[in-house]
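Note to self: keep these together.
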Amino acid sequence: MGRKVGSAQKWLYPGLGVKRWLVLLLVGIAFLGLAFAHLLYDLYTSGWLSRSAWQVLTLAFLPSWARPLSIAFVGLSLAAIAIYQFNHSLLGAFVPPGSASVVDVLYRHRLKRRGPKVVVIGGGNGLNTLLRGLKHYTENITAIVTVADDGGSSGQLRRELGVPPPGDFRNCIAALADDEALITQLFQYRFPSRVGEAGSTGALDGHSFGNLFITAMTGVTGSFERALVESGRVLAIRGQIIPSTLEDVTLCAELAGEDSANRTVSGESAIPEARRPIERVYLQPDNVSAYPPAVRAILEADLIVAGPGSLFTSVLPNLLVDDIVSAIRASTALKVYICNVATQAGETEGFEVCDHVIALERHTGPCLFPCVLVNTNLVDTPPPSWNFQQVVMRKPLGTEYQVIAADVVDEQRPWRHHPDKLARVLMNWYERQSRNLTNS
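Structure:
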């Protein structure tokens, strides 16, 4: 019963845009009732209605004070039942199965439509994790994704068909989908690898359906960016996913070590496989142009977030596009770097929080992201089975940085962030900062 009352009260919440129409509806019903009363009175005075019928229709057998109350109660009850059933009959086809009520869906929709404009920069599983949490707070999400991926199914499609690697884009589309329905699972389906009698493999081995779908949509629509829009429409995603650049780039790295002949590695997938400390990463060709909608989204953003994700192969490749960095510096948005909760083999082994920040500064200049979100839920004695270390903060970052310290780890998978925890901490911090800026 309490749940129904709560749902009914939501019709009175500001911002739904329905109260004015409910009032207009009630005024219209009142005028219809007045017209009907005049009609009954005319019928009675002209002799078409008997006195007994008139007394029943006007509730003359009740005390005078009870008549208007009874009529109003019956009228409002019938109107409420009619509106409720009409909404469910008309809008039932548009309400996801299992949703609490029409008003709950409407309230969440209006709330997210009014949400802040958030730009998230990165790639890989870290970006997907953040997007899964953010979509519950706002629909104004722009995910800017790297196009440097050259491994697996994405790399094969990129080499054979000349399309940008669709893998990270596919994962982002699935993460921003309205629900985890069958179509979303289909989009993420990966064809199993099978080896034939002669040792040959099938043409679809290892490919995901989503990658093939986006690639096919690129051919149908004529452009990769249009294919992303149409693919997102199929899954009814909350936001948009765009590349940082449309140019064909290769991610390269300079590795630490005395062997000067093997210090340079070419290819995003080859960098962590080298298993050597990374001094810097860069794009070939350099000075690539940013995708204009990415720059526009950054300049219009309320909040810009880099990470989480593989620092050198997912986050930094986007920030190696000069126009992207220039737009971030020019933007008036709040800017946050989300530090990983765990180290990554071949990239950030032995890294602490300060090492992440130093790597960012080495590639993008000082204090591009003046706020750093750090996980505080740390295990004192990690189990021997862990093949990673938790990223800790032992050294201060300096007065120019603000640290957002919170429990954001997924305890079931302690090498990753928890989507809901991370989004809640980030958006609560954003709301506090926005209020402080408004009041100052």
